[in-house]
Structure formats: C-alpha cells, structure tokens
Write a structure and sequence with these properties.
Two copies of one chain form a homodimer. Chain A contains twelve helices and nine strands. By secondary structure, chain A is of the alpha/beta class. In chain A, the strands form two sheets. A six-stranded parallel sheet of chain A has the order 3-2-1-4-5-6, sandwiched between helices. A three-stranded mixed sheet of chain A has the order 7-8-9, covered by helices on one side. At the A-B interface, α7, α8, α9, α10 and α11 of A face α7, α8, α9, α10 and α11 of B.
C-alpha cells in the first residue's frame, strides 16, 4: 500500500449511498482536501441529481461496478441489507490496493456479507460512526456531524493493518474519536446504546398512534411531557432501521428480553404500590445521565445544519 | 370573588414547594407584577435558604398552615403524594375567597386528595403545566419555562367558574396556552404522552446499567446512538415520578399493557425476519414526528437557563 496512513489522500472515492452519513463524509473529505474526485452511486435519479447539484460528488452512477472501477476507496453508506448485492457487483472491479469500508450500525453481519466478495489485495475495514440525526438524504448531511463523536472500527485479525490506519486517519480528520473493538462486542454495545432505544421509541410512538380514547392531535399537543423526545428517534430512516434490527437480531433480542424482565418488575411495583422499588431505580438512573453529561456526549454538540 | 379574573393580582401567594416548577411560576408572577408577596414553604432548610437567596420568595416557612394564613392564592408544587398531608394542615387556615391550585401531573387523585380539606368559599382549580426539564430545585427554575407550552385545567362541574378564569389568566401570563379537560381524560392523555415515556426511559437506563457484558463507561461513551435521549428523561426527579406512577396507576398500567402487546409483535417480527412489519411501523411513526414539528412542540423552544 503506497498511501500515507497518517494523512491519506484518495485519487478516486466511490461513495455508495449519498444520504445523511455518506454525504456528510463526502463533505468532510472535500473540506480536508483528502480526495481527487468522488463518484456517487445511488439507486434513485432524484438522489443522484441532488448530490450533483449540491456539489457533494463529481459524477454519479446507479451501478456499483462502475463506481468501483478505478476507486482507491470504496465506501458503503447504504442500508445493511444491500451490502451483499452491492459487493457482488462491485467486488470484481476493485483493484488490488483499494480499501473498502462502510458506516453500518451492525458489524458481524457486515463482515459476513462483504468479505466473500473481496479480491486479493483489497482490504475491508468495517467502521461505524456513532452519529446521526433523524433526517435523511443528501441535503441532510453536514461536515460537522462527526465532530467529537466516536467512530468504532471492527477489523478482524486478518484485516490489513495499514488499511485500518488509513480509515482511522479519515475519521480523525472528520473530528471523531476512533476506537477499535471486536465486531461481536460492538454489536452488543450498540444493541443497548442505539438499537434497543430506537426499537422502544418506534414502539411507543406506534402505541400512541393506535389509541382510541386519545386522539393523535392530543398526543401531538401534549408531547412536551416526554413523548416528544421519542418521536425524534422514531423519525429515523425506516429502511435503514429495518435492516439494522434484522442484521443484529440476536443481540437486539437479548437486550429486549432483559428490558422486558425489568419492565415487568416496574409494572408489578406500580400495581402493588411499591414506591421504594420505583424511587430506587429512578435515583440510580440519574447517575448515568450525570456520567453522560460529564463525558461531553449529552448534547448534539457542534453546529446543526440549517433546515 | 373580588379579584380581576382577566388581570388577577394576588396580595399574598403561598407557594408550597419551591422546585423547578414552583420557582419558575414565582419568577413569572414577579415578572408580570402579579403579586404582593410570596411565602415559600419547603421542608428542607437548604431549599428555603436558596429560595430566599435567589429572591424567588419574600419569606419562608416549613409549615403549610403558616403559609396558608392570609394567602389569597395557595399553590401546591410538591410531589403528588404530599397533597393530602399538606391540605390537612393548611385547609383550616384558608380564608373564604382564597383559591387553591396545583401543578401536579395526575389530576383524578389530586381532586380526591385536596377537595375534602377545602373550607366553605375556597375554590380548588386543578392545573397541570405540560412543561419541565430534567433539573430540580429552586435554582433550576426560569420564567420562560412555560412559554408556548400547554397548561391543562381540570375543574369539576362544582368548581367556581371565576376561580378557574383567574388561574387560566395566571397561566396565560406565563405564556402558556390553556386547555380545559375532564380530569379522567387528562390522566389518560398524560399517561401516554408523559408517564409511559418516563417509565420506559427509566427502565431502559436501568437495563443498560445492569449489563455484565457491556460496561457502564461503554454505555456512556456510545450513548449518542439514541440512548442519550432516554437518559435525559430518566434524570427527572425520582420522588416526583414515583408519586406520579402511584397516583395515575390505572391509566399507566393500561398504557403499559398496550405498549407490551405492541412490543411483543415487534419482537416476533425481528425473530422471524419480518421486515415488512418493521418498515410499515417505522414509516408510520415518522408522520407523528412531522405533526409535532409542524405544531411547534418539537423543541424546548424559548431560552434555557444558564447552567
């Protein structure tokens, strides 16, 4: 590999998926002068047109194989369920020395789906920037999205070490703090810090929408009492999240069953008027919040895009 | 009643509980020049000293009876479980023409606990400002907390109409939009828009804290993936929330069992790889968020207190 692992520069980046994360990453690479040209790959004509219009990419295609041709960096920024098909098409066109990476929220399945299609001499560095908003599409992206957030890399023992350094350098230039983790552990950690919260949020918003005795307009009107915060999360991209739950099924189901056990205990405490159990838990959870505030992860932090 | 129902002025307000909501309301009444003097009633010496130091109240006491003496407005801003004892002490000291009101998050129990202690000629106007933050105490309050939020009044058919107008006028001066509702319906609406979300948030934060395979520091580090938003809610005042769940038990348990049924369906969909069910729900919940954004209830809106 001839690339500078500390300050990498890519001649030609293939960005497969130009949504919130993909377009934000493209903006970072432009801002940092890390890239010669970017080819954006998207299925829909509207997305391709928007990505060109915003100047996020230099050219567009709907064909992963064409995107892969001549690319020294190939980045998957599409829903997890698409990885296999994309790599089946793109793999044969990737030249030795190219690096494949991704931004998916589950990693065991990513490694499983991508690895079989890697030609000799092409490294795959699984990555997951823990950042996002509830908005989707190329226009939702912004270069500061990853600032002060964590990006988790989950290379296997076989992954080319220099390629891992290159991808780590890319994320550091995005302002992220980079951590390495075993893929299976990543999936467990994210099941609790991200996937379960999303599932619960989607569920409660659905429950509220289905009530007969309370109208949807009442739910909306009085949402400031707590519900509101769940709706933000439950507005996240439906296809992306469907794929995450299916891809990380085992860990999500494990976390969900623990959640259910704990909830049954609270339900019982409410039914029997056991105030001690409630108060004890509510006091304990306050500490966790304090930890998050102290760690600087409490707010969305840096600049939000104008909307 | 001699008070101006449109632009009420109170000679002497008794503020029982000087926490986030109570101290914010006191700040509003000062700002609007609606009050002669305010006596703050609090159990702990530290709270009384802080309320005096911040100039939120003119005098303090730990005795509800003393607070009630000579008060033309008596406001309960303490956890729901304290109402009965406070009113048992304060009731006999309330003079005819005085108005009692509160800010509690459940209303059926409030009416049940307060009404028996009202002397002849004293009106009780149950009120619930749907606003708050995760912070507690006199120093957490700020006058803009209620701006553009809803305040729900739940008078019974017996409640003095002029007293209801006075309390409505108070909340309008706080910047709130005022709605009247039957107490039982209020408790159902708030069970879904506020109580259930808090219960779920407390529960998931507890589940995360108890994991063996994922450390608390990992949970904190990667909380930006969605978990973070739950911790904010789960940092709300433990005693206040214990009392809400116990006070609104029936409605909370009803909402919780619907939530559980819906969650079991999602669990099954994940286990069996039923992507359609997941995607359909996730698409539907997005609409609700849109309604909240359109209604102007999406953000915490107006000024936050410096912290």
């Amino acid at each position: 590999m001839s690339i500078d692992t500390k300050r990498p520069h890519f001649e030609r980046v293939a960005l497969v998926g130009v949504g919130l994360i993909g377009s934000s990453l493209a903006r970072v690479m432009r801002r940092e002068g890390m890239v010669g040209s970017i080819i954006g790959c998207a299925r829909t004509e509207a997305t391709r047109a928007k990505a060109l219009e915003l100047g996020i990419v230099d050219e567009v295609t709907d064909d992963p194989a064409q995107a892969a041709t001549g690319a020294d960096l190939f980045i998957l920024c599409t829903p997890l369920g698409t990885y296999g098909d994309i790599m089946a098409a793109a793999g044969p066109m990737l030249a030795a020395g190219a690096i494949v990476t991704d931004v998916g929220s589950a990693k065991v399945c990513t490694i499983r789906d991508v690895t079989p299609f890697l030609p000799e001499g092409v490294a795959f560095v699984p990555a997951h920037p823990v950042a996002g908003t509830e908005h989707s599409g190329p226009e939702a992206g912004f270069a500061e999205l990853f600032q002060d957030r964590w990006c988790i890399l989950t290379p296997t023992p076989e992954t080319d070490a220099a390629a891992v350094d290159v991808v780590a350098a890319l994320w550091k230039r995005a302002g992220s703090k980079v951590e390495r983790m075993e893929a299976k552990h990543h999936d467990l950690v994210l099941a609790v810090t991200s996937h379960l919260p999303h599932l619960i949020a989607y569920n409660i918003v659905g429950t509220a929408a289905d009530l007969e005795a309370v109208t949807e307009s009442e739910v909306i009107k009085y949402s400031a009492g707590g519900f509101r915060d769940f709706t933000r999360i439950a507005a996240s991209d439906p296809v992306m999240w469907r794929d995450i739950f299916l891809a990380n099924r085992e860990a999500v189901l494990e976390m969900l069953s623990r959640f259910n056990e704990d909830l049954a205990r609270l339900q019982r405490a409410i039914r029997w008027g056991d105030g001690e159990t409630l108060r004890d838990l509510f006091t304990r959870t306050r500490q966790i919040r304090r930890g998050i505030v102290d760690s600087g992860q409490a707010s969305n932090g840096p600049p939000k895009p104008p909307r």
